[in-house]
Amino acid sequence: MKYPDNIKYTKDHEWVKINGDEVYVGITDFAQNELGDIVFIEVDTVGETLDKEEAFGTIEAVKTVSDMFMPVSGEVLEFNEELENSPDIINKDPYGEGWIIKIKLTDKAELDELLSAEEYKKSVE
Is 1 a residue whose pLDDT tops 90? Predict the structure, then answer.
């Protein structure tokens, strides 16, 4: 399993990569491994402002469908359209090309509540 140090994590297995007031969000290597082969991603919240821990979309794997939750409050700016035709990118590169949404932060203080790589690793092992 990979746990990059340059991103933050949630207890719900999402990750956050900070880029100024914008953040990229995806699911962790642990989450994609648990889900198995990802076959569909649905995000219909682009343009909406959501609170931390609100569902922003769903992820479907061969064996299950799961909600994905906002790691921080913000406006959903963009959905990674590459995932429409190739959702399995998440299985291959969960922390890079497999990002799911980009959001504009509304409360930077919420970033301090996220887990470090080491804290997340301890929570899943």
Answer: no
Q: Rounded mean pLDDT of 84-109?
A: 96
In a domain, 2, yes or no: no
SS3 per-residue string spanning 3-42: CCCCCEECCCCEEEEEECCEEEEEECHHHHHHHCCEEEEE
- pLDDT at residue 2, rounded to an integer: 87
The structure's pTM equals: 0.94
Q: Which domain holds residue 55?
A: 8-109
Q: Is residue 1 part of a domain?
A: no
Q: What's the pLDDT score for residue 124?
A: 93
CA atoms within 13 A on the CB side of 33: 9
**Residue 45, CA distances (Å) to 54, 77, 92, 97, 101 in order:** 11, 9, 25, 20, 10
CB atoms within 10 A of CB 7: 20
What total of structural domains would you count in the chain?
1
Task: List Cβ neighbours of 122 (8 Å cut-off, separation of 6 or more).
Answer: none
